Amino acid sequence: MRAPGRDDPPPGPRRGGVGIAAAAAGALVLIEVGRRATVLSGPVMVRRNHRGEPVNLVAGPVAAVTSSLAAAVLLPSRLGRPALLLGLASGAIGLYDDLAGTRPDHVRDKGFRGHLAALRSGRVSSGAVKVVGLVGASIATAGSVSTGPADRILAAGVMAGSANLVNLLDLRPGRAAKACALVAATLLGGAAGGAGAAVVGTSLGVLPADLSEKVMLGDAGANALGALVGYRLAAGSGPLARAGILAVLVALTAASERISFTQVIEATPGLRELDRWGRRSVEQTP
């Protein structure tokens, strides 16, 4: 049995290019509008970045909505509706963690160790709620690209794992958006290529304000973009390939508990320069 949508025709280079441009323009405009809206510029939407400077979380909801809508338009309907649900649900779950995770009783609940420690002490951390929500949304939508119960679990794992990994990268300006744009740019072909185009366009639209440290993706944006990358990966691969992708995602997630991705990137020529590209230097003022 083939996965639903596997034989659907791809959107075509022209439509994909238009989709990328539209998503980029939409994200760029909505971020600027959001930054200037009183309701989205208050303390609840402001966080301190790695420099200790205030940045706005508005890029997260914008990225989630823009990428999800673009994917829904660019994908065949049997794939577009699940992708829309996955992107919006992942973004909403991430936004909950962005807002609830700053409460004093949640601040220390970082990583799987932190979530487990919170559970052992009788608390449910916002991060644990996010993990359960991501897995649930992924399982709910994985049926559109899978062929059976076991394959559905693999596909859902790829989606949730990809969302989590992108979130782990969102520690420096532009890092997560660059990673999503680069990976998704290799996934523009096939019936599910529209999901890749949606992620590429949205990531490019986010980058200017992200690199200038005016906004950050937060969990809302990183989860949505990552989940849609995972959706495209799952849709374009068979069970064996999905198992391999999932194994890599699990290994990287486990490694993040022991090593710093930032330190690895800084110590690796090529990655270091790519990571710093477009970012303002320490000497530059906002």
Describe this structure in words.
The N terminus is likely disordered. A hairpin with a 5-residue loop joins strand 1 and strand 2. The chain has one domain. The longest helix is centred in the first third of the chain and has 24 residues. Helix content is 66%, strand content 2%. The chain is mostly helical.
Task: Looking at this protein, list some descriptive labels.
single chain; 286 residues; mainly alpha; two-stranded antiparallel ribbon; 12 helices; 2 strands; 2% strand; globular; disordered N terminus
Overall pLDDT score: 88
Number of strands: 2
Helical proportion, percent range: 55-70%
Morphology: globular
How are the strands of the largest sheet arranged? 1-2
Q: Count the DSSP helices.
A: 12
Quote the distance from N terminus to C terminus: 55 Å
Structural class: mainly alpha
Show unreliable segments: 1-7, 104-108
For the largest beta-sheet, the strand count, sense and barrel status come to:
2 strands, antiparallel
What percent strand? under 5%
Specify Rg, calculated over alpha carbons.
18 Å
Order of SSEs: HEEHHHHHHHHHHH
- Overall tally of domains: 1
Q: What is the fold's blueprint, element by element?
A:
Layout: H1 13-36, E1 46-48, E2 54-56, H2 59-74, H3 77-100, H4 111-120, H5 126-142, H6 149-169, H7 175-185, H8 193-211, H9 218-235, H10 239-256, H11 261-266, H12 271-276
Antiparallel strand pairs: 1-2
Helix pairs in contact: 1-2, 1-8, 2-3, 2-8, 2-9, 3-5, 3-9, 5-6, 6-7, 6-9, 6-10, 7-8, 7-9, 8-9
